[in-house]
Amino acid sequence: RRERDGKTFPPGPSSLPLLGVAHKLDVSTPWTTFTEWKVEYGDIIYFRQFGQDVVVLNSEDAVKDLMERRSSNYSDRMYMSTREPYGMDFDNIFHRHDETWRAHRRVAHQGLRERHVDIYQPTQLRFTEALIKSLESSPERYNSHFQRFAASVVLSAIYDHDVIDENDPILKSVVETIDILVLLQMPVNAILFNVFPFLKYTPTWLPGGWRNVTEARVKIERTVNLPFEYLEKKMAAGSAGNSIALEAMERFRDTNKVDNFEKVVKDACCSLYGAASETTSSTLMVFLLAMVQNPDVQKRAQEEIDSILGSGRLPQFSDRQSLPYIEAVCRETLRWRPVAPLGIPHSATNDDVYKGWYIPKDTVVIANVWAISQNPEKYPSPSSFKPERFLDGTGGLTNDVPTYAFGFGRRICPGRHFATNSLWIAVARLLAGFTFESEYVQAGGTVKWHNAVTSVPEPFPCRIIPRKSH
Ligand code: HEM
């Protein structure tokens, strides 16, 4: 227990003046270190990193107590000195908990609420079919096909924009901008830039060799505006289909409740893309790895599909209820290797006391999703991929839905219903259409992980074999 100014802080490792706790952390997978610290320090851990107060929550109960039951105090994001100068303040994901954030959330919620997302199912199906075709013609490029699938469904839902190929101007522009956002807003970099402001102007820290802030601003502004220029042309021609952007524009224009609504909608929509694309494709990579590591699971999933659909018919969204094992495979994919193992850190708006421990204003509060998803009491042998965990004795689904993979409280991912639909149709169709094998992985070959904002397996040798019956 540590005391400062008569206040008791939660337990945690001691920090060095310059390094903080960096020397004690596995910096590429800090979530594993935080989970190990649970044994010594418990469910709520405190330390200081470069002068920044940090609290890590290692259990679902602690996360829910703070981020959900006390959501008015734990829904902010940390201050980032790079946001304004680089023109990144358009972004909703790292936005402070204020009126603009609320307006963005309204756009997201309206377009992505649970009962509404089904209108995008035809789009998701269409791009799943394109994914299958790409895998048939160049299976070795599976990773870029997954990325293309994720980007296409999302750009279509947000802007009614169909990605034609890799040179698509909107796709290129958003990908470039996301790279900047990721680099500058990764929590560790954000803290560094706050503490050592000169770093953010140092060219080597900037993506793509960028030399100055102005150029970043221009690129970001273009990314926010370009999809709307396309959409406006379609609107003028009367050919604009359903999209989150169009719906939000029409609604905000009619209600007159939001100031500067065009900017709000543009910014919110661009943020949606940023949050949606990489998370979805990374989850498909995790699914693929799980399949090649667990041929028995793959076989059982294919047997379920074949027994319900017969050979030849492909899964449709309407089959979802009849395929509980496929649903369980999707849930287990989200649990087994959550692509955001530390979620996105929240921040405390005011001083607070929890279980007698003091949490100062502006503390960065991290929900350790990894510790929750790997909790051996809830999930015995947590590192094994076992979809049966989500099934009851009769083969039906349990009530356990790994929503923790999508964050918590007011900041919970607004795209989760859309994401789980994309994931489900892709997984069902991939399993119906192909068998995935990897002698390399089966023989214990190393699979590297890329750990940045998301944690994702790097491409590994894999054979993608069309199934004869489909
Ligand atoms: C498998 C796919 C996805 C995963 C695992 C995922 C996960 C997450 C997580 C962990 C957060 C942080 C929540 C928190 O702070 O507590 C988040 C935020 C967010 N997600 Fe997702 N997400 C996915 C797909 C999507 C999609 C498809 C969209 C939009 C179409 C989306 C839009 C957003 C937005 C806008 C935020 C920021 C919310 C805020 O700060 O208020 N995500 N997501």
From TrEMBL:
Pathway, per record: Secondary metabolite biosynthesis
InterPro entries linked: Cyt_P450, Cyt_P450_CS, Cyt_P450_E_grp-I, Cyt_P450_sf, Cytochrome_P450_fung
UniProt KW keywords: Heme, Iron, Metal-binding, Monooxygenase, Oxidoreductase, Signal
Similarity annotation: Belongs to the cytochrome P450 family.
PANTHER family reported for this sequence: P450, PUTATIVE (EUROFUNG)-RELATED, P450, PUTATIVE (EUROFUNG)-RELATED-RELATED
A Gene Ontology molecular function term of the record: oxidoreductase activity, acting on paired donors, with incorporation or reduction of molecular oxygen
Keyword Flavoprotein among record annotations: no
Highest taxon, organism lineage: Eukaryota
Name by which UniProt lists this protein: Cytochrome P450
Cofactors required: heme
Binding site for heme: C413
Keyword RNA-binding in record: no
